[in-house]
Amino acid sequence: MDETNVAENESNRSPWSLKLSSSISTPLAPCVQCCQFDGILLQEPVSAMDFRTQEKVLISDVLNALMGMQGTYVRLQNAQRNMDGSVSDQKVFKLVPGFHPSLADIASEIVLMGNHLIAIQAFVNEYSAFEYGRVNNALCAAIRNLCREYLLLVTQCERQSSVDTGFSLQTLRLYTLPTAQSLSHLYSLTCDLILETKLAQKRNTELDLSNIDNILERLNEGNGITDVFNNPPGKRSICKGGRVLRFLSQRIEQYAGDPGIRELLTFIFHESSKPYTEMLNYWIHRGVIEDPYEEFMIKAHRGITAINIDDDYTDELWEKRYTIQDELVPLQLEPLKDKVLLAGKYLNVVRECYSSMDKPWNADNISESLWPTTFDNDVFMDAFLKAYGYANESLLQVLKSTQSLYAHLYSLKHYFFLDKSDFFTSFLDIAGHELRKNASQISVSRLQSQLELSLRQPGTLTLLDPNKEYVGVEINQTSLLDWLLQIVSINGLEETNLAREPVLWLEDNSIQHAEVGDIDKSGSRRDGSRPPASKEIDGFHAMQLTYRVPFPLSLILSRKATIRYQLLFRFLLMLRHNEMQLESTWIHFTKQAIWNQISSSRRVEVWKKHIFQLRVRMLFLVRQLTYYCTAEVIEPNWTKFMEGLEKARTVDVLMQKHVDFLDTCLKECMLTNSKMLKVLSKLLTTCTMFASYTSTFTRSLTLIQKGIADTGSLDEARMAKMEDVLRCYDENYSHNLKVFLDACSYFASIETAALLSLVMRLTT
């Protein structure tokens, strides 16, 4: 063979072909000349290759590495030790030593893409499992599509290298540089998601067993105590669902200035959010939660049903039936999360109402094919607002028509505001003996029987009222003043800032501390504690009505709304009781002959006249207060409230108008102002004490008249004492009335103008 043919054959020889050594004189000659790198026998040492051959070898092996496969001179090895000393199980590509430094630098830079690809594929393989949830599955599908496009680029580069003799490592680097940046960020994204999962596992391990609600829920699901405490739920520890979308949204915000990375992340977010958007659509359009892997922002508690809500009349049951999981709320839905919750809850209410009536119910007419596929654009916002409006209107229609909401509201007005309350006068007559007892000695069952008897008396308006079955009676051993002052103090409504406070002053924290449901018949709270110590009160000051309606009416006539009704009722009952006592005083005077006799002593007649005048003044005050609260506060606001209900198009508006009506009545009835409460309480207490002192006045008058008849002269000492007692009542009443009028005038100018009419009538 001539030298030309030898040179041609040498140039065409494959870089990974064997090179026979004929210069080694051993028994096994000719043999393969080999070198070793990390335990791998190499076919040809790098040092034996020229620059061009090294580049060709590297191009071939680097292309293999870009597809995740190791070659002859680019091998897969274990990664270096972590900072904590542990050895990572991740494989990375490494070049065989000996290549030209310029080639090695370029190849090492390109090979990083292969390292990233291997890690990304490992992430995709793991997170494609069903327990990682549908969002992670969609995320992996999106990444898989990106990897497919990436491999297509590698294939094109491989094709180009085979047809272009001038194809170099630098050319390959330039071709893959834009993709390398995207792949690097994709790798960083997967690493951070894995880190998020580890952090979530750590948080759940620390917090899950300290959350009593989670423990009870898992026990209700059929798990044993051992499983609950020894095996925390692993699937809840995975970064999935809304948490993944929240993470992606934050990532998009971080790279807002990089159009390429932002476009990549936006694509991944759109693809990943499709399953979540599907769950969201089912919730806001159907009221159904399709969430087998606990990824959705709304969580349904299985143990709470409409039956439970009827049995245990509390707002908390309905509020806890469906709850928001804040960590699973994507950033785009953060401002809408409360409306998202309500939209589905309202549809659930409508569905249950129709199912209880054995009637078919059709959701909105929007086809599932027209539902938006993502929630980060205006299309979803339009669709959501329509769905939310439909849910509101549907529930509103159910409440107004099938649930007779208006009839219940009128019944509440009759019973709690004593409107056309002929039954209540009869009830007070029947139950008067029981109500005069101390609150702790009253039999609630006897009061309930007497109330039912009064409601069913022939000739009363309540006889034909079907809603009287929902009315009950209970005893609250905390006086109205103490209860109101407790609520005011909890909300921080002081005299200095009352004018700046919003109308909605009775919030959850005050309900929690002052809720009637926390007080049983013995006066003890459910947690075993006692209410703040106060003076023993009688039944007239401790009795309050209840109104327990079934679900879904309890959404509108909730416990919080009922407490507002009870506050107003107890105040009106206090005024009615004062009026009855003062009227009874006059009846007592007319029935006692001693009061009808004209005394020979002018001082006695003046004393009697002052008593009559003081009683009339007190009765005038009580009647004016009653008239003001009913005719000038409740009735006008009730009319506005009913007009507002006619215009209401959503349940939210209806609920807000209802609460606003009650809060306005409480405010204008002076029940939200601590100073007014204290002054008014002193004023009414003076009237009550004066009325209860009637028999003592009668005994004193009898004794003084008997002394005149026996001795012919007036007992000056006894008469002076009688005049001092009367003067004490008069001065106390006059002083408290003046303070009350001054307070009314002041707060009428800065807070409630309605008080001006009361001041004018009391001063004329």
TrEMBL record:
Pfam families: GCP_C_terminal, GCP_N_terminal
UniProt-annotated location(s): Cytoplasm, Cytoskeleton, Microtubule organizing center
Keyword annotations of the record: Cytoplasm, Cytoskeleton, Microtubule
Keyword Cytoplasm: yes
GO cellular component labels: equatorial microtubule organizing center; gamma-tubulin complex; gamma-tubulin ring complex; gamma-tubulin small complex; half bridge of mitotic spindle pole body; inner plaque of mitotic spindle pole body; interphase microtubule organizing center; meiotic spindle pole body
Family statement drawn from the similarity comment of this UniProt entry: Belongs to the TUBGCP family.
Name of the molecule in the record: Spindle pole body component
Source organism of this protein record: Schizosaccharomyces japonicus (strain yFS275 / FY16936)
Gene: alp4
